[in-house]
Write a structure and sequence with these properties.
The complex is a heterodimer of chains A (270) and B (241). Chain A is mainly α. Chain A contains 12 helices and no strands. Chain B contains 9 helices and 10 strands. In chain B, a hairpin with a 2-residue loop joins strand 1 (3-14) and strand 2. In chain B, the strands form 2 sheets. Chain B has a 6-stranded mixed β-sheet, with helices on both faces. A 4-stranded antiparallel β-sheet of chain B has the order 2-1-4-5, with helices on one face. Classes of the chains: A mainly alpha (270), B alpha/beta (241). The interface between A and B is large, with 42 and 48 residues.
């Protein structure tokens, strides 16, 4: 009989590798990691250069805009790293194979988080390099503050990704559109390209509870060099993220039980 | 022969509809148990509950003496599943697919095991082929390799030969019987091909409207109902009166 070495880490590694194999061979999938971010950067990078030349009132325009663009993409890709990876198994009718294997739901989510980080590293490396080559923009000028800002965006993306995945499990492929669109729903209230102050009062109240809005406010504070690290923004964002990621995991866990009770897991995977 | 799977009073309700209605049965060590019934009889729901994909409304499932509800992960590492209705990631090669599952199941010496299974199912030449380029019959054979990777003690097969041509289907059935005899695997087998069920099953359970309405060896059932073959008995049971 074949002997077994069935450990948690081995299973998490196995499922992560399953997706990395995919990116090794599939050009369309590889394009998903690089194509849109690069296209965004090229188009909006040149737009911001043009605008900054038209009026000299906002000398940090490029820094504001490109910094925001790269950081927003981090949030967007971390969400997609989870929900699109889940969809890959739905599309290839492989989900049942995964859920009848010894991989537990917790290990499954952990693998998706790893995948999300790997995809993010690849996308960010290309965007940061391209921004430097095309526009002489160095995002690392934000200094060590960049680390907590980026971490907060990643965790917010994870929360959205986990909830999206749970909803697709529950409502089937009809809910697939959420994987592509749900993060964009948060863009207006995240104040990515403009300060929270320009939003109407009631929208500002909503923005207060969106971790990304604190991150982008913090980024702008660093760019204009107002008083060092934006500690209060970082603490706000981190506190909200702790609450949201906990809620997302609890929602996934509860939803998984509901999906099993309703017999939907087999249907979404067929 | 002891029971490796024990099912007692298993019931599943979906919004008041009784998909599975208080069924009890055992799967013995080393036997092939055929699960027969018309569409919508409750076969798939029962299979899903046995695999831990659907939670029963009431009743008990014990596999290897372990409770499915609390020991799901331990049980799933010792069983496996294949169905002609599921597939594998298209962009991955046969080898990559099997390697992923070998790791998921913690198979020691995965390369040797994969080589062995590819040889047994006569698809060694396809190991570097992406799954998308395989015919449905070839995919089915790769799925069967996947299902045998962890040398399962219990194998759940949902219409495993549905997409195979008669030659490969016959080879596959013989192979499954051989593996079952050599390794004493217990198999729960579903198919709408009654000839196949008669050939494969040591014992069959006939399920209709969520309830077990007949059980026994194919010969016993044929004798009892006076049918020439299992297909005739199926029609008698599915069209009472």
């Amino acid at each position: 009989m074949t002997s077994m070495r069935n450990t948690k880490s081995a299973r998490i590694f196995a499922y992560t590798v399953r997706h990395l194999y995919l990116y090794k061979r599939s050009l369309p999938r590889l394009m998903e990691v690089f194509y849109w971010p690069v296209l965004d950067l090229v188009v909006w990078g040149f737009v911001s250069i043009y605008l900054s030349r038209q009026k000299g009132e906002l000398p940090d325009f490029i820094t504001f805009f490109l910094g925001a663009l790269i950081l927003w993409d981090i949030l967007f890709r971390s969400q997609q790293g989870i929900s699109v990876s889940f969809l890959e198994d739905v599309w290839s009718r492989n989900l049942l194979n995964i859920f009848v294997s010894p991989l537990s739901p917790a290990e499954y989510i952990t693998s998706l988080l790893f995948l999300s980080i790997i995809k993010l590293i690849l996308t960010s490396a290309v965007m940061v390099t391209l921004a430097w080559l095309l526009y002489s923009f160095n995002i690392f000028l934000l200094g060590f503050t960049l680390i907590p800002l980026v971490l907060n965006l990643i965790v917010m993306g994870w929360s959205i990704g986990i909830i999206t995945t749970a909803l697709i499990m529950r409502f089937g492929q009809e809910a697939e559109v959420l994987a592509w669109g749900i993060a964009l729903l948060f863009q207006p209230v995240s104040a990515v390209f403009y300060p929270v102050g320009v939003l109407p009062g009631w929208v500002q109240t909503i923005a207060l509870f969106v971790p990304a809005s604190h991150v982008f406010e913090g980024m702008r504070e660093v760019v204009v060099g107002r008083g060092g690290a934006p500690i209060s923004n970082i603490i706000w964002a981190a506190s909200l993220n702790c609450a949201y990621i906990t809620a997302a995991i609890l929602f996934f866990w509860w939803n998984f039980k509901v999906v099993k009770r309703k017999g939907l897991l087999a249907k979404v995977g067929e | 022969m002891g029971s490796v799977v024990e099912v007692r009073g298993l019931t599943k309700l979906f919004d008041g509809f009784r998909a599975v209605d208080d069924i009890s049965f055992d799967i013995l060590k080393g036997e092939i148990l055929g699960f027969i019934g018309p569409n919508g009889a409750g076969k798939s729901t029962t299979l899903q509950m046995l695999l831990g994909l659907t939670t029963p409304t009431s009743g008990m499932i014990r596999i290897f003496g372990l409770d499915m509800d609390s020991k799901r992960q331990e049980i799933l590492s010792r069983v496996n599943f294949s169905s002609s209705y599921i597939s594998l990631p298209f962009s991955l090669t046969v080898w990559e697919n099997l390697m992923v599952f070998a790791r998921l199941y913690g198979v020691a010496g995965p390369k040797k095991r994969i080589e062995e299974l590819l040889e047994i199912f006569e698809i060694g030449s396809l190991k570097d082929t992406p799954a998308r380029r395989l015919s449905s019959g070839q995919i089915t054979r790769v799925c069967l390799c996947k299902a045998l990777l962890n040398a399962p003690e219990v194998l759940f097969l949902d219409e495993p030969t549905a997409s195979l041509d008669p030659d490969i289907a016959d080879k596959t059935r013989k192979l499954l019987k051989k593996i079952k005899d050599e390794q004493s695997i217990s198999i729960l087998y579903t198919s709408h091909n009654m000839k196949e069920m008669e050939e494969m099953s040591d014992r069959v359970i006939f399920i209709d409207k969520g309830r077990i309405i007949e059980t026994g060896s194919p010969d016993e059932i044929k004798r009892k109902h006076g049918g020439a073959d299992l297909e005739e008995v199926f029609l008698m049971l599915a069209r009472p009166g």
